[in-house]
Amino acid sequence: MSTPTSVSTPERILQRLDWQVIRRLDGLLQGDYRSLFYGYGVDFADLREYQPEDDVRYIDWNVTARMNTPYVRKYVEDREISAWFLLDLSPSVDFGSSGNQKRSVLVDFVTTLARLLTRHGNRVGAMFYGSRIERTIPARGGRIQVLRLINDLVKQPLLPRSPFTNLTPLLEGGLNAIKKRSLVFIVSDFISMPGWERPLSMLNQRHEVLAIRLWDPCEMVLPDVGLVVMEDAETGEQLYVDTHDKNFRTRFENAARQREAGLNEVFKHAGVDMLSLSTDEDMVRALVRFAKLRQQRRK
């Protein structure tokens, strides 16, 4: 197995993002990062009867069943946020059509959010998933923790081809390992075997979950470049296709749209907000767009 090549040290990666992303976000969001993650740290305080417009995610179904009337959990806010990154590092994230892989976007996103969180005194941790949970980094604060995350990410070995990814163990691992209510970022392209939808909903009942979907434009629209070899990033299976064939490109795009609609439905059903991060999109624009979306949903 090989390791992702990078001429940048963790310190240089953090410095680059401090200048190119975080300083711009400071100006555009004016330091109000709660619009990005109102994922407050909270502890359970009490139960009360459900009232109109209460968040249904806080319904305690066990108590509701016993009392025969809806009850919701009340939480008290804690100044410190505990945030976790559940990271899909399976072979499909090593794809990229424009010189920028989904893995690179993942590293930049984790670095940016970890930096924003820790500089305000919060703690961040991570779980790395390949074909299984490869590593768990306990939640800690400080700049050193951010550098450790970057270092472990850039040194994470690339995986050989394997059967299709199954995100269920990653989400179940988060359910079992994260005890205190936390802000949880699931960073993945969500190319997975089915079955992860239920643990996603369960995770969002206990924590505030944000799905960060990584994608590349060529996964949605095929360019007309003639005869090419397409390779499955997970299994390594190869197939010759003629991209001059308009019908083939149309079927490909229809399948991509159906998959997109299916993912959106899963996140909507689970009550999870999703940020879509493309390999060719400016991260600052994507994060500001996401912050505005979450502000609108809170009104």
Strand order of the largest sheet: 5-4-3-6-7-10
Structural class of the helices, strands and pairings?
alpha/beta
Number of domain modules:
2
Helix content bin: 25-40%
Task: Describe the protein.
- The chain has 299 residues and is of the alpha/beta class.
- It folds into two domains: 249 residues, von Willebrand factor, type A domain (Rossmann fold, 3-Layer(aba) Sandwich); 34 residues, no CATH class.
- The protein contains eight helices and ten strands.
- Strands 5-4-3-6-7-10 form a six-stranded mixed sheet, with helices on both faces.
- Strand 8 and strand 9 form a beta hairpin.
- Helix 1 packs across helix 4, helix 3 packs antiparallel against helix 4 and helix 5 runs parallel beside helix 6.
- The chain is globular and about 65 Å long.
- The N terminus is likely disordered.
Short overview:
The protein is an alpha/beta fold and about 300 residues long. The longest helix is centred in the C-terminal third of the chain and has 25 residues, at about 245-270. It contains 8 helices and 10 strands.
What's the arrangement of secondary structure elements?
Elements (H helix, E strand, L loop, with lengths): L9 H20 L11 E9 L11 H7 L3 E8 L3 E7 L13 H17 L4 E7 L3 E8 L2 H12 L13 H10 L5 E6 L8 H10 L1 E8 L11 E5 L6 E5 L3 H25 L2 E6 L4 H16 L1
Parallel strand pairs: 3-4, 3-6, 6-7, 7-10
Antiparallel strand pairs: 1-2, 4-5, 8-9
Helix pairs in contact: 1-3, 1-4, 1-8, 3-4, 5-6, 6-7
